[in-house]
Amino acid sequence: MRPTPDRVRETLFNWLQDKVGGARCLDLFAGSGALGLEAASRGADSVTMVENDRQASKQLQSHCQLLTATNCRVESKSAQQYLISSSSQQQFDIVFIDPPYQSNVWTEIAEQLMTNGVLADNAYIYLECPSKGELPTFPAQWQLLKDKKAGGVRYCLFTYNLGDTE
User: Which of 147, 148, 37, 46 shows the shortest CA–CA distance to 93?
Assistant: First the structure.
């Protein structure tokens, strides 16, 4: 597990400060739950945290209970399984994508988010990837708003516009 560094998380939530309150958030590859729990503490209406590792998933569930985070739900499955099973069940306003770097699934996850209609119009998509190398390929409907690096981490914020299909 490689939790989002505190400095990066602070910057991210500064970017999203007026967007988190009342939002429906999806934390794919939740890991320690730092991003999802931060969103919950800042007034997100709901936070779905998806974590494939059973032990990490149990730990997340425990943290949610300890913090009385009733707006949080933990899904113990892979991000891909969740996105396929959630097809058109719920749309999210903010999606966090921070997979293990060696998995190299950014483009695949982006395509699944689009194919399964998981993004609300004007949703925000946050992602972390290695700072070295090119940014993965993302759908044309994703507009890059912010792009920063901190050590070995590149972190970006996109917005999704349903009407932009170029």
Answer: 46
